[in-house]
Amino acid sequence: MDAVHLVARARTMLDRPTVYVAGAGGHVGPGYPPDDAADPDARELVYGMDDDERVQYERMAALTGIDSARPLRGCDCTGFVCWAFGLDRPRSAPDGAQIFTGWIWSDARGAQRLFRRIDSDAQPLRARVGAVLVYPKPPDLHETYGHIGIVTETDAMGTPTRVIHCSADNFKQSYAALGDVTRANAIAETGPEVFFEHLGVPGHEAIAAECIAVVL
User: Fold this and answer.
1) 3-state secondary structure of 133
2) Is 94 helix (H, G, I), strand (E, B) or coil?
3) Where exactly are the structural domains of the chain?
4) Taking the model in full, what pTM does it have?
5) Interval 84-104: pLDDT, tens
6) In a 3-state reduction of DSSP, which class is residue 204?
7) How far apart are CA 98 and CA 90, in angstroms?
């Protein structure tokens, strides 16, 4: 699968309302249609969150009118990226790990089993269309997770200018613009600012990487 088809596949989710739910998405196989990045019902993941995560989710749900008693089409940033590349999040990692941002970041900088870093400390976040931008959970910052997205546009120097990604902030902004929780979407194509904000965290900085194990 080339970058053009990867980006086109990812963009099919821009008009499919999806709630941000940590741990959701990224499954391949029966029950997870290839044209749908989100878990058809992510409620059990909400119930399984630790206390801090659940409080954050319930706060977002209260602000946007989500009824957590109803089925939730849920996805998170890693689940969306895994789906786009055709990776089975619980089974594709060679070491048997559940794939998440920290795993991808470490793999790209080290063993390079599924992802390989393509930028450098001298030229951070130089990328190309179809690459990912990723950072792990930063230390000593009030963030529960890291983040990952797919580059959809760069300038002539290779600096990312547009990224498609799934986040709670995307969902909140979508809901604020639409005023309709049934149409709001955590998956959006935006500028890369959130990733550039994480360049100054030694040992945890945002990097650009390519997937070397595309399945589709």
Assistant:
1) strand
2) coil
3) 3-211
4) 0.92
5) 999 999 888 888 888 999 999
6) coil
7) 5
Pairwise CA distance, residues 198 & 200, whole Å = 6
pLDDT tier, 68 (very low <50, low <70, confident <90, very high otherwise): low
Cβ pair 85, 214 in contact under 8 A: yes
CA gap 8, 10 in Å, rounded: 5
**Beta strands at 115-117 and 74-75: parallel, antiparallel or unpaired:** unpaired
Q: What is the mean pLDDT of residues 134-160?
A: 89
pLDDT tens per residue across span 171-211: 989 998 998 888 899 999 999 999 999 998 888 999 999 99
The encoded tokens of residue 125 equal: 């976040």
Query: In this structure, are strands 19-20 and 132-135 parallel, antiparallel, or unpaired?
Result: unpaired
What is the spatial distance between Cα 126 and Cα 81, in angstroms, rounded to a whole number?
A: 19
Q: Which amino acid is at 201?
A: V
Residues paired with residue 147 on neighbouring β-strands, in sequence order: 135
CA-CA distances (angstroms) from residue 153 to 7, 70, 79, 121, 130? 10, 36, 21, 21, 9
The conformational region for residue 134 under phi > 0 = left, psi -120 to 50 = alpha, else beta, is beta
Instruction: Find the Cα–Cα–Cα–Cα dihedral 94, 46, 185, 211, rounded to 10°.
Output: -10
* C-alpha pair distances (Å), 143 with each of 12, 171, 182: 28, 17, 27
Model confidence at 69, pLDDT cuts 50, 70, 90, reads low
